[in-house]
Amino acid sequence: MASSQDEVTAAKVSPPRASHHRRCPRLLVHSAIGFGLVVVSLVLVFVFNSAFSLSASPLPRGRSTPVIVVLGDSITEYGENPQLMGYASMLANAYVRRADVVNRGSAGWTTRTWLPLFPAMVQDWERKPPALVSIFLGANDAAVDTDAQHVPIDEFASNLREMVRLIQQVFPACHVMLVTPPTVDDATCIYPRRNALTEVYAKSCVEVGAALNVSVVDLWTAFQNRQNTTKRLHVANDGLHLNDIGNELVYDLWLAQVNQDMPLLSPRQLPIVFS
Hints:
alpha/beta, 5 strands
């Protein structure tokens, strides 16, 4: 009798073997899920750390791309047009991989228009100071005195001086180069301009440059010397804006002045960045 009772008791205490087999797959599934979560977490941590390291790593010293700003009126704005062989687009090509040429030409603007905005623009440049700023204004300032764009000659000179002063005050290492207005073709000009009056503004620009000891590209004189040739320098039936020949002349004279006065900023001298 005792033996039969022990067998009954053992049967009640011992768990069914089938239940043990049902739990094994569940444990395996849970383990696999846990392992997968660990792997995913490690991958995310690695990716995040890699991205942070790339964004936080500073650029190698001495490898920053110089900035060259060409500032002006419509002649500079349209100078970005490759169909006209624009002087600004040719400069960008000459400096490709060596410097960033930034065009700040605004059609219809004068020194009077630019001056109030100059402090804010200079402040914007503080994030990456320019190595050279060329100021190419005067073609609109030299409008006849009955035109709304006209700026008196004394004010024109004063505005140029103030622009140069602001740049030199904030960026002592920055080179400044003035560019005189080019000639006007009186025979075809459709705007209220006169070549003789533009000459006065060009000479004033040269005088400001000499007084402040900054470089000057005397476009008016260079254009005047070529005015009587068969090659027109202005857009046909316009007389003010430049065609491809005029733009190429600006480009050549601009680079020649840089090569002469600031040779380290010549495209031939600047190293290729990120080579």
